[in-house]
Design goal:
Elements lengths: L3 E4 H7 L2 H14 L5 H16 L6 H15 L2 H9 L2 H4 L2 H23 L6 E4 L3 E2 L4 E9 L4 E11 L2 E9 L2 E2 H31 L2
Antiparallel strand pairs: 1-2, 2-4, 3-4, 4-5, 5-6, 6-7
Length: 205
């Protein structure tokens, strides 16, 4: 499978933006999802087209991106990987609460990163299989001055693929929080982590 790319400025000139965006979002939902790179392509394309939709204000763009990410990102898997052994020490209710709060934090981080980009060309590279169940799908965002790598880590769930980590400019969203969260749990326990996440999310714009 050869690398592919998509220029969104060209698409917006040649296809009615809202119509194409709606098609991409519906396609992302309906895709059989047996090919991990196809999952990443449709998801990323939907997100970037959302960012470029002049009919949406920033709040609506963020909401739409949250909806897209929620269909293809396994936030519970991300949270359990961040907490490592502390995950099993939390109650089921606490696991759900931490996952909810961490999802909110991750989407905010992803939004802040991705919302900086517009009209760039995105190149989808050959996926790298770690096993039959785990793959890495690298992409490159080409700007006028830089190449920005964004690497999606996916694993198989039945006949679909879900992302359990995103590495943006060599920074893993999961690894970025692991040491900090483990330190909080060590000092203040699971309740302290929940309080910390609540405070962080309340402070977000």
């Amino acid at each position: 499978m050869q690398p592919s790319s998509l220029n969104y400025q060209y698409l917006r000139r040649t296809i009615a933006g809202p119509i194409f965006l709606a098609f991409m979002i519906v396609s992302a939902q309906a895709l059989p999802q047996t090919d991990p790179r196809e999952v990443v392509e449709l998801t990323v394309n939907s997100i970037l087209l959302t960012l470029q939709d002049s009919n949406l204000d920033q709040a609506k763009k963020k909401h739409q991106i949250t909806e897209i990410a929620s269909r293809h990102f396994d936030f519970e898997a991300m949270t359990s990987r961040v907490l490592a052994t502390n995950w099993k020490r939390a109650t089921t209710a606490d696991q759900r609460r931490i996952t909810q709060l961490f999802k909110q934090m991750l989407i905010e981080t992803y939004w802040q990163k991705m919302s900086r980009y517009s009209d760039e060309q995105v190149e989808f590279l050959q996926e790298q299989s770690r096993s039959e169940e785990y793959v890495s799908c690298p992409t490159l965002i080409r700007t006028n001055a830089n190449l920005i790598p964004v690497d999606y880590k996916l694993y198989r769930v039945g006949n679909t693929w879900m992302a359990y980590d995103v590495v943006i400019e060599q920074v893993s969203l999961v690894r970025n929080y692991r040491g900090k969260f483990q330190s909080i749990v060590r000092d203040d326990g699971i309740p302290g982590l929940i309080s910390h996440l609540e405070s962080q999310n309340e402070a977000s714009p």
